[in-house]
Amino acid sequence: MRAYGTSCVHEYACEQCRLARPDPGAEPRLRRTRQGTDEQLEEARQRSWLGEVKRLTHIAAAVDDKLEEMERARRRTGMVQLLLPTARRPVPQ
Question: In which residue ranges of the chain is pLDDT below 50?
Answer without folding.
Answer: none
